């Protein structure tokens, strides 16, 4: 058994055509991320232990995947050089990211990356981007969207989200469609919204600026073309827009509010050519996804430092070519089976 | 409804004599075209919709609704802008079979940005408004699939008597003057189909049997005992079918392989979309036992002779033919799906051999030689002699008179257009909102299929079975359809046991659309997964959510199909006598109410659900155009 926690990076590779994920279409992002991590860990550990994998999909009933991840943890910890600080890079052995990327000329592809990070650490962000570039082996990325959710903002939002989910859970599944229509996001009480926005902005804008400066350097070097930011109100976006050397080209808002976009945000985006895009990511994706890997399979991913989701689109054809995650995690000893 | 060549139509005798000529040269033209274009690649997604409308005239004093035969007056006005500036119009207008019909399409195809989904409805609204401005008082245009009293006495304005003894149709019910007079193609087709068949077309649709429904339905079975069935609504004219309105879609694929993939993958969706869009339960003033137009149109252009239909031994004809030229497809086109072609594909063996010699692969050669078992039924004197290297009219002649659920369309010669696929089963919906919803749903599905490499293919005999089930009364809620359990089969995982029955199971439309736990994830959850991986702008996502919600609710039964709504309207009408008859007054009230729903003055929670307002917009936000141009610099 593993004695201490290990830092690892996990690159899930292309999760688009993983059969398990497809069978559960419509699952939320947290599930998709945690499933992808678990699958990656179990596939990787199978290979480490010389176990057979059937073309990227192991026989993964919950029991077997637990066993696999158990082996994985033991093997990394018992390796002579293994220490708490050793960074192990975990990937899926039969990933097809590079095959998919090679199928189209780079100019026909659009690569978008969203970075989830809860601390305003420039080194963490740099590490994250380096991992993304390594994972994709590409010269440049078309756009990077920053989702910065420091813990103090997180806890408050998570509570609100829980309430919303409770309110809507009686309708047909928890699909975004039903969420979107039933969610009570009022655009009439603009005062209250602005207050909340302003408070949130105070809490996150300083951190965003620290991280933004890193992203701007990437843009200057030509390695990233456009920058975006997720879940900031109209006021905050305006401030960032005014401050930034490389202005935000994209503002991402939660899908649940796409029919009730605050008019000020909408107007600002129109006036400044900012693309107002939707996402379906929970604000505290990192902690939620980490918990899910723990509680369900006992894999032992008890913390995610950061996570980047990459999505590659084929331009002008509306085709999603591939999608995957790179995360930095702390792998802990597997929990005992109950 | 196909190619509109200008010129002078040949007589049936002349046309018949040239049938073999058209076939031979049509095949050579296809071979030449294929050689030039088989490697064409890199085309982007472009797509467009076609909506057909009926011009309805209300007489509020007499409480009557009729079809107004004014397409010939309206079309030149509607086409003025196109004639003046064809590159920059927002809409294109074309004639259709009925003199009371017009067909509208967007002026330019939509492109591969998701933001394009948000301009579909606005463009449909624009088209409807554009046509509405030039109507006479009392006239409206309605995208209803079938005019309920089509073929009833005096169903037209101005009124016209049928002419059973002469003319091109010779129908007991449908006058020749109801056929669009502005182009000779329509009457020529009518006449040639009847002549080729050797008798009038015969459409028998089972009547809906209510408490007081009379059997025989009317005196048709006395007048034409060999054609009319007593317990059916009998129709004897091409106009009963080709006079229906459809909602069609065409997509451009990036290359021929993708076009084949989409053709194959969308084929199993045809019956599902037919049932989901069901909108035509009433024919010739009677409630029937079907909800859709498909079999009606199929029979309305069935040009097969008695020999070909298997009623007499083959003597003068070459083939026993199992289906009308308007019917579901007979084969998949991708080599990997050949094993699912489990019905007899009637084809011309000589032409097949020639196509193979010409370098066409087996499934495509089979498909084309299957289309080419048909004779031309419309030929123009100017088009008889052609340059097979550069012309494609003979190929198009046969291709465009095979009206199947799917159409595989080669690029036109010397054009910037690529390989395309046409999706043809949907019935026209009452409102622009609904039509936009169905259109976006299908186009989104094509993107999902390509992104996730989904596999919907099942034995084609099962698709045919589904086509019949889809048309039954209330099929959307009550029928089960063959469907693949596991649609995600990465090639390396596919267990090649295609005949194993547990690959397919019977599911309701609800299960197919919204998912069935542990069996199939559902088309809408798949679309949602796809969208979560795309960059969708807020307004577009809002609209798409409303569209998906409509489809989701139709599938679950929370709201009705147009067919169920109409059926319910009739059977609960105070003057309905439980005899399946849709009287002048009921028809008037039905269409008046439908028109009110269409214009938003009458709420229709049972048909549309509540609060479905999209954020449709006429233009794409500038930020997205900017984004595209930035990327193009690289």
From TrEMBL, chain A:
<comment type="pathway">
    <text>Sulfur metabolism; glutathione biosynthesis; glutathione from L-cysteine and L-glutamate: step 1/2.</text>
</comment>
<dbReference type="InterPro" id="IPR032963">
    <property type="entry name" value="Gclm"/>
</dbReference>
<dbReference type="Pfam" id="PF00248">
    <property type="entry name" value="Aldo_ket_red"/>
</dbReference>
<dbReference type="GO" id="GO:0030234">
    <property type="term" value="F:enzyme regulator activity"/>
</dbReference>
<feature type="region of interest" description="Disordered">
    <location>
        <begin position="155"/>
        <end position="193"/>
    </location>
</feature>
<dbReference type="GO" id="GO:0006750">
    <property type="term" value="P:glutathione biosynthetic process"/>
</dbReference>
<dbReference type="InterPro" id="IPR036812">
    <property type="entry name" value="NAD(P)_OxRdtase_dom_sf"/>
</dbReference>
<feature type="domain" description="NADP-dependent oxidoreductase">
    <location>
        <begin position="102"/>
        <end position="278"/>
    </location>
</feature>
<protein>
    <recommendedName>
        <fullName>GCS light chain</fullName>
    </recommendedName>
</protein>
<keyword id="KW-0317">Glutathione biosynthesis</keyword>
<dbReference type="GO" id="GO:0035226">
    <property type="term" value="F:glutamate-cysteine ligase catalytic subunit binding"/>
</dbReference>
<comment type="similarity">
    <text>Belongs to the aldo/keto reductase family. Glutamate--cysteine ligase light chain subfamily.</text>
</comment>
<dbReference type="InterPro" id="IPR023210">
    <property type="entry name" value="NADP_OxRdtase_dom"/>
</dbReference>
<comment type="subunit">
    <text>Heterodimer of a catalytic heavy chain and a regulatory light chain.</text>
</comment>
<feature type="compositionally biased region" description="Polar residues">
    <location>
        <begin position="166"/>
        <end position="189"/>
    </location>
</feature>
<dbReference type="GO" id="GO:0017109">
    <property type="term" value="C:glutamate-cysteine ligase complex"/>
</dbReference>
From TrEMBL, chain B:
<keyword id="KW-0547">Nucleotide-binding</keyword>
<dbReference type="InterPro" id="IPR014746">
    <property type="entry name" value="Gln_synth/guanido_kin_cat_dom"/>
</dbReference>
<comment type="similarity">
    <text>Belongs to the glutamate--cysteine ligase type 3 family.</text>
</comment>
<dbReference type="InterPro" id="IPR004308">
    <property type="entry name" value="GCS"/>
</dbReference>
<keyword id="KW-0317">Glutathione biosynthesis</keyword>
<dbReference type="GO" id="GO:0005524">
    <property type="term" value="F:ATP binding"/>
</dbReference>
<dbReference type="GO" id="GO:0006750">
    <property type="term" value="P:glutathione biosynthetic process"/>
</dbReference>
<keyword id="KW-0436">Ligase</keyword>
<dbReference type="GO" id="GO:0004357">
    <property type="term" value="F:glutamate-cysteine ligase activity"/>
</dbReference>
<dbReference type="Pfam" id="PF03074">
    <property type="entry name" value="GCS"/>
</dbReference>
<dbReference type="GO" id="GO:0017109">
    <property type="term" value="C:glutamate-cysteine ligase complex"/>
</dbReference>
<keyword id="KW-0067">ATP-binding</keyword>
<protein>
    <recommendedName>
        <fullName>Glutamate--cysteine ligase</fullName>
        <ecNumber>6.3.2.2</ecNumber>
    </recommendedName>
</protein>
<comment type="pathway">
    <text>Sulfur metabolism; glutathione biosynthesis; glutathione from L-cysteine and L-glutamate: step 1/2.</text>
</comment>
């Amino acid at each position: 058994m593993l004695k201490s926690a290990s830092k690892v990076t996990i690159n899930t590779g292309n999760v688009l055509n993983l059969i398990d994920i497809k069978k559960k279409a419509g699952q939320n992002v947290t599930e998709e991320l945690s499933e992808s991590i678990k699958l990656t860990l179990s596939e990787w550990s199978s290979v480490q232990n010389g176990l057979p994998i059937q073309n990227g999909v192991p026989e993964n009933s919950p029991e077997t995947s637990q066993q696999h991840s158990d082996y994985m943890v033991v093997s990394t910890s018992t390796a002579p050089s293994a220490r708490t600080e050793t960074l192990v890079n975990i990937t899926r052995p039969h990933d097809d990211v590079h095959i998919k990327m090679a199928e189209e000329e780079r100019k026909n592809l659009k690569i978008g990356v969203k970075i989830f990070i809860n601390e305003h650490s420039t080194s963490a962000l740099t590490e994250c981007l380096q991992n993304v570039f390594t994972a994709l082996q590409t010269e440049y990325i078309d756009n990077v969207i920053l989702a910065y959710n420091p813990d103090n903002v997180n806890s408050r939002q998570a509570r609100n989200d829980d309430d919303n989910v409770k309110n809507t859970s009686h309708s047909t599944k928890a699909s975004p469609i039903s969420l979107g229509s039933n969610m009570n996001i009022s655009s009439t009480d603009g005062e209250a919204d602005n207050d909340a926005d302003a408070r949130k902005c105070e809490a996150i804008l300083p951190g965003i600026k620290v991280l933004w400066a890193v992203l701007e350097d990437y843009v200057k070097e030509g390695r990233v073309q456009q920058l975006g930011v997720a879940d900031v109100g109209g006021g905050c976006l305006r401030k960032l827009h005014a401050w930034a050397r490389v202005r935000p080209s994209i503002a991402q808002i939660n899908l649940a509010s796409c029919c009730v976009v605050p008019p000020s945000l909408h107007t600002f985006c129109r006036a400044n050519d900012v693309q107002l895009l939707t996402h379906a990511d929970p604000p505290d994706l990192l902690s939620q996804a980490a918990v899910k890997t723990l509680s369900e399979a006992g894999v032992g991913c008890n913390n995610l430092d950061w996570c980047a989701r990459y999505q590659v689109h084929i331009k002008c054809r509306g085709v999603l070519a591939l999608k995957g995650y790179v995360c930095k995690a702390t792998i802990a000893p597997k929990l005992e089976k109950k | 409804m196909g190619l509109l060549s200008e010129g002078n139509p040949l007589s049936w005798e002349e046309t018949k004599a040239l049938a073999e000529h058209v076939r031979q040269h049509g095949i050579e033209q296809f071979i030449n075209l294929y050689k030039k274009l088989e490697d064409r690649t890199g085309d982007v997604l472009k797509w467009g919709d076609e909506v057909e409308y009926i011009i309805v005239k209300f007489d509020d004093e007499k409480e009557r609704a009729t079809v107004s035969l004014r397409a010939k007056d309206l079309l030149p006005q509607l086409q003025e802008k196109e004639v003046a500036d064809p590159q920059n119009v927002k809409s294109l207008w074309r004639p259709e079979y009925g003199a009371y019909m017009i067909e509208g399409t967007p002026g330019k195809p939509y492109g591969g940005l998701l933001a394009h989904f948000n301009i579909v409805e606005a463009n449909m609204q624009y088209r409807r408004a554009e046509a509405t401005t030039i109507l006479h008082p009392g006239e409206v245009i309605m995208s209803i699939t079938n005019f309920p009293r089509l073929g009833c006495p005096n169903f037209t304005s101005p009124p016209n008597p049928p002419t059973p003894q002469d003319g091109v149709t010779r129908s007991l019910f449908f006058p020749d003057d109801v056929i669009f007079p502005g182009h000779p193609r329509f009457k020529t087709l009518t006449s040639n189909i009847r002549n080729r068949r050797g008798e009038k077309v015969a459409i028998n649709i089972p009547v809906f049997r209510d408490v007081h429904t009379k059997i025989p339905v009317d005196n048709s079975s006395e007048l034409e005992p060999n054609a009319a069935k007593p317990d059916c609504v009998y129709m004897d004219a091409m106009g009963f079918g080709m006079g229906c309105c459809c909602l069609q879609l065409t997509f451009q694929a990036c290359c021929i392989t993708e076009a084949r993939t989409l053709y194959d993958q969308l084929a199993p969706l045809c019956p599902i979309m037919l049932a989901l869009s069901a909108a035509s339960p009433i024919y010739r003033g009677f409630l029937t036992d079907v909800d859709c137009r498909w079999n009606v149109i199929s029979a309305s252009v069935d040009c097969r002779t008695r020999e070909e239909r298997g009623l007499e031994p083959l003597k003068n004809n070459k083939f026993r033919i199992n289906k009308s030229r308007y019917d579901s497809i007979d084969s998949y086109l991708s080599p990997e799906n050949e094993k699912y072609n489990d019905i007899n594909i009637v084809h011309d063996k000589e032409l097949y051999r020639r196509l193979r010699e010409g370098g066409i692969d087996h499934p495509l050669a089979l498909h084309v030689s299957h289309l080419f078992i048909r004779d031309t039924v419309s030929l123009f004197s100017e088009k008889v002699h052609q340059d097979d290297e550069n012309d494609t009219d003979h190929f198009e002649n046969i291709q465009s008179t095979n009206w199947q659920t799917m159409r595989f369309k080669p690029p036109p010669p010397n054009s910037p257009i690529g390989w395309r696929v046409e999706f043809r089963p949907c019935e026209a919906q009452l409102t622009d909102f609904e039509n936009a919803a169905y259109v976006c749903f299908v186009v989104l599905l094509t993107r999902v299929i390509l992104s996730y490499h989904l596999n919907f293919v099942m034995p084609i005999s099962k698709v045919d079975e589904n086509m019949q089930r889809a048309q039954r009364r209330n099929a959307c809620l009550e029928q089960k359809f063959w469907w693949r359990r596991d649609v995600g089969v990465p090639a390396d995982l596919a267990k090649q046991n295609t005949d194993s029955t547990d690959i397919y199971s019977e599911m309701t439309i609800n299960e197919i659309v919204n998912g069935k736990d542990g069996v199939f994830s559902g088309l809408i959850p798949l679309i949602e997964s796809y969208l979560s991986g795309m960059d969708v702008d807020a307004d577009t996502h809002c609209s798409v959510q409303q569209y998906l919600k409509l489809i989701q609710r139709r599938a679950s039964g929370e709201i009705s199909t147009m067919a169920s709504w109409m059926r319910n309207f009739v059977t609960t009408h105070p003057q309905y006598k439980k005899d399946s008859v849709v009287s002048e007054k009921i028809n008037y009230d039905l269409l008046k109410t439908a028109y009110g729903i269409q214009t938003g003055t009458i709420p229709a929670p049972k048909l549309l659900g509540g609060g479905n307002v999209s954020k449709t917009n006429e233009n794409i936000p500038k930020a997205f155009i900017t984004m595209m141009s930035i990327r193009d610099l690289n």
